[in-house]
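Researcher: Please predict.
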Amino acid sequence: MNNNKIRRLVEQLAVAGYDRKNIVIYGIGAVAKSIASQLTEANIVGLMDKDPGNIGRCIYGYEVLSTEVAISKADAIVIAASEVYWDTIFRRISFMKSDYGKQIFFTNGDIADFVLAERETQMHPYWDTTHDVILSEIEHHEVISFDVFDTLICRKISRPEDIYSIVEERANMDVLLEENFFQIRMEAVDLFQKSGDPVFSIHELYAFMTAHFGIAKERAERLKQLEIDVEIEFSEPRNEVIALYHLANRLNKRVYLISDYHMPSDILKRIFFKSGIALPTGLLVSCEVKKSKLSGALWEYYRNLIGNGKALHIGDNDIADISNPVLHGIQPCKIMSCNDMLFASSLRQIGILVRGLQDSKIVGLIQHHLFNSPFSLGANKGYPEIVTLKTFGYVFLGPLIYNYFSWLIPELASGVYNKVLFLAREGYLLKRIYDKLTDSLGLTGHPEGVYFRTSRRMASVASIMSEDDIFATLNDSFSGTAREFLENRFGIDGTNEDSSEILVQTDSKIVFLVRKYSDIILRNAAVERSNYLNYMNRSGVITSRSMAVADIGIKGSIQYYLGKIIESELVGYYMTALTGPDNPYCLGKNIKALYPEPLFDKRKSSNVFKYHLMLESTLVAPEGMYIRANEDGTFVHGPHFYNQLHFEYKAEIHAGIEAFVFDMLASNGYRLGKPASPDLVDELFGLPMSGTCLISDEIKNSFHIDELFGVVNEKKIWE
């Protein structure tokens, strides 16, 4: 960390009267370590971190505290992070100041306040950095060097140290390690550096861990190899920066790659090969030359190596890659990392909501998708623009669908169910993903997934056995003419009724129509029920031992009607649903939801509940709505609306969703991880409606919702 910042922090703590009080440092990275080592007068009582999984760990000799313990112990909190994260962290912990009176300081000693924290996204000077600007700099210099990680290569996680958490996760899955690897790994670096060698290789570090932590040599070797494998697996190319690197080579520049990295060059070369990076004129790795960019020693070594040539360095770190090269006559050029771009963009809120490892993986994938190009935010001054349907599905819907299955599949693991019904038409994609997931995970004992042909119209009519049942169907809203009410709701001829006046289900004329046509409705319902039961028999549903229902949700009407028809209670597992007393079907314990909506609770509704129409417009099938089953096993469908006539648009979104789900599965070592933070996934789902990103007109115009049961119409989500 810059010594000037630390001096100013010490001075400002003294000016504010906190220099000898209890301090909690927010952060567990290198900045936190630097601050902790130099606040010699203050009483540092612990660290804080966004990941609750780190609470209780000892890092750099300090315990990571829970929020509650930090409030009880601290007089002040110091945010230890790069400047781009200050706003984000302050928003996360500002309640400690407003509600508990704890003073909060930024890393440079400024007292944190919303006046200081609010920085206009569109005013960020980095947005003026373009491909052509950097190309011009390359053309006007003789020697070009590139940083490696976060410049040429990005990791599909939100912060580098999460690599160690992934190693721990994989090691524990393989019964390789009983101890807390993350804590050991972090402590080992601290102790190794305190022993007098600030620059180390992974081989030296693991030898140190064997000597000081009692890890058997054979197991340490396996862990080291696992860390190497994870680093390679999670490394991905930043293609536009790599293209500039290759262009510099074609321009016959002397090109170097320079990295503060604990893996030696033979491992780096494996990452280069995976990423399509040709070997440079020279490769300098800190652990091999025993000098670092951050300390500045590597830059002195590099300047002596290249002589007096006009040199340019391209990198992301404000100190190691930007400030320090200047001291040795090297022109720096900043390339923002994917993570820095996220926090400088209009989507910084999703970074704020990252808590655990699953969150980090989700945000890492999204960062890589949206910000792989360091120039992607310049045109719109920090506002991401979504221009492809596949990207829309990947970024906004993929995390929700992944979270749904990472919740649903363990829920179905009890052995109670032998079938799970994915209701048409939402189940078209869901059933496909379920089958692929259970196959990939080898879950042979899980319930069979069934794409169940049904609809509210089909199930409700088949469930009618009395006039009271007819009236009960009016729990579902209706708006339309008398003719539409009879034909679309009940499947009977309404040509003799008025087709001009618009009615709703509570109108007295609706009651009159039900009573007038009740006998005809009941006779038709009996026929439809018989055909429906025949379909269920053929599909093995009737003979099933026990079934669950999977769907988007809301009220669980189809679940209720099916239960009536087969005279059996079903359990529904929904993305969102009314789970409290406001549920009109009184499903009680038989309705479960990833995002339950208890309306009696005055909490803010989830985005998944508020914008469920976006799900309904996405999770569609090539066929029109199921109206009824025929005696011969075929079905009568409603008309093809926009979503069916242009199903290729939905297929693109589905491809994005599926790609995200299986990217997450891969990041978990082809095991199903725990659900990510519901707040993070809900925030991602709501972003298209929030105005914090730009959605192309082509995408907006593809979102239609059609209805034949409650109201006969088709409309756009975005008008």
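Model: The CA atoms of residues 280 and 327 lie 24 Å apart.
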